[in-house]
Amino acid sequence: MPPAESKNTPINPSRxxxxxxxxxxxGALIIGWGLMPPRQRLDPDYPFPxxxxxxxxxxxxxxxxxxxxxxxxxxCEMGQxxxxxxxxLVAEELDVPLSSVTLERAPxxxxxxxxxxxxxGLPFHPDGAGTFKDAxxxxxxxxxxxxxxxITGGSSSVKDAWGPMRxxxxxxxxxxxxxxxxxxxxxxxxxxxxxxxxxxxxxKASYAELAARAVHSTPDxxxxxxxxxxxxxxxxxPRRDSAAKVNGTAVFGLxxxxxxxxxAAVKMSPTIGGTxxxxxxxxxxxxxxxxxxxxxxxxxxxMAGVAVIAASLWQARKATDALPVDWDPGPNASLSTxxxxxxxxxxxxxxxxxxxxQSGEPDPGRTAVKQLSAEYRAPFLAxxxxxxxxxTAQVKDGKVTLWASTQVPSIAAxxxxxxxxxxxxxxxxxxxxxxxxxxxxxxxxxxxxxxxIAAQAGGKPVQVIWSREQDIAHDxxxxxxxxxxxxxxxxxxxxxAYENRIASGAIxxxxxxxxxxxxxxxxxxxxxxxAFDMPYEFAHQxxxxxxxxxxxxxxxxxxxxxSHNAFFKESFVDELAHAAGREPVEFRRSLxxxxxxxxxxxxxxxxxxxxxxxxxxxxxALHPSFGSIVAQVVEVxxxxxxxxxxxxxxxxDCGLPVNPNIIAQQMESGVVFGLSAALFGEVTIKDxxxxxxxxxxxxxxxxxxxxxxxxxxxxxxxxxxGVGEPGTPPIAPAVANAxxxxxGKRLRSLPLRL
Length: 754
Hints:
This protein folds into three domains: about 15-245, 2-Layer Sandwich (Aldehyde Oxidoreductase, domain 4), CATH 3.30.365.10; about 260-330 and about 390-465, Aldehyde oxidase/xanthine dehydrogenase, molybdopterin binding domain (Aldehyde Oxidoreductase, domain 4); about 335-380 and about 475-745, Aldehyde Oxidoreductase, domain 4, CATH 3.30.365. With about 750 residues, the chain is of the alpha+beta class. α16 (about 560-580) runs parallel beside α20 (about 730-745). It has 20 helices and 27 strands.
């Protein structure tokens, strides 16, 4: 497990000045800033900490006296395999064995900020091109480099690291070659590298021997490898974190045991938006192990509640259960799921929404002979990660130390500093393994809560652990959504008009408010992603979204808007195929003539799936997300009212596959996660309260229900794209389409029920 995040002394504090400070003063500054080159991502503001004998070659890499290469790891490992994939990028360019690479948590620094995740949030259609789009993407990337937000999410880890980590490896290799060439009196181009050594004829030197001299060398010709010369990238590699997870040495959020550790259990408002009127702490003061009762309301927006600090978790929970709290239910005491969907429907009736994409005329009229319309819906969903919400914090002597399974260490540090009233440089974040992130650990309310509670513990560390019931009831849910489609077909079965309007809350609006204190406004790509950016070549199409604010806390759930929009879109495309009298696969093929990569993925999936067994049917879905293209063919049977998925053939084109092993694992994971939601997932609200409590009424797929998943990874020369999430969106529509093929029943609501 990589060591902790650590605070460091700035190399050059002036670099930290944010260049946009005068935006409101003069447009000249904006233009001047825009013309400046983007912030580099090799040399940090804060140094990569080096132990005795280690040599820093740049902000990402240092060499040890035994030849060990230590790589800074800004991303969090939550099962997606970045502790294997990202070191491969450095090892490839540095020409060292992967086994010689160790990881260390990167310090919180702007060079480690995730640029790709922020750029991917721009609502541009993937088929669009032009100077304006290029300029906005460039400017957004430049801004992201200045913000320096360290985020693991959006299936962006490899995509974002593909440039800077390879550049770090190539630069370090060039420095080592330059140092050896100078010593040998030859040209760098006459030297070669292999397995941590530099060679020239009979001469050779190890990287460890050269490191001290290399740090002073200035190479003049740094080149990234041509993919045809890759020795490591593209080859299956075993996961480097597996052994620690098997033998129990991996440190997750619940594992840290700092000296003097206390525990805290929480009790939060049962109604959404409720507050604490009164808490009687004296009622539990005499219970075994109880140290203190803390009202942490106000630490995180909309998260009212109390905690009991005790010597053990069991004692804390028993006291919390017995703690009398008088709750004010707040303004949402009558909130219900039915009410939410009535509001979504009403807004779709009256509001045209924001148009994310339009081509041609949405209603050509004259050639239409058949009209088709449908309404689809998707419920709120919880993340239900296997590791419950937790945070360990210590507030002592004006400093904060965190042990946290977080996807956003830089935001966690800012949050801790705000709650404790200290400078950010006085916050140390120890990032642990995450027992399932799925977007839940992009939130930081557990950090705010943990720091607020620990601040009342007299300098002792406190581990805050939610129960599963608290976890489900107080999640930041996948938004409920309603989608309406209308289409017109001519007498040849061609779709001459296609319109899709969706209504839901906007995650970005809520996140901006609760995390950064900003007003959320404008388009939020996640609301319409997977709908407006589809590859299908309808000549006349319009896709719009109506934002309906909701008091229900919503957040980023694995695959975000794609998770429900894929179900809506791929199910309706199936409906169009049947209305046109066409076979669904052939119908899709006819709409992908200008999208050869999508067509190849679809064709491969159909060919690999073969024929369904007797009594079963195939369902198909094709969906691009996070830069990758995925097609899934599912083999389904129906027994009474039970839908059973036996096999999933999954094909992905994710650009150049860095580690096919991990890609296959992530496709399997995405299928199982998505299938749980497709068959069972639903959060309902009554009287302002979440009705689900635990896995008995919020079930996930059991082992005996998991289908066989066969994954085919397409070869590609394109840059790597997302892998962690694209396996989830296609599974629900593929199953729904198979059920229709078997029963003739079109299921337009999730979860799928007969």
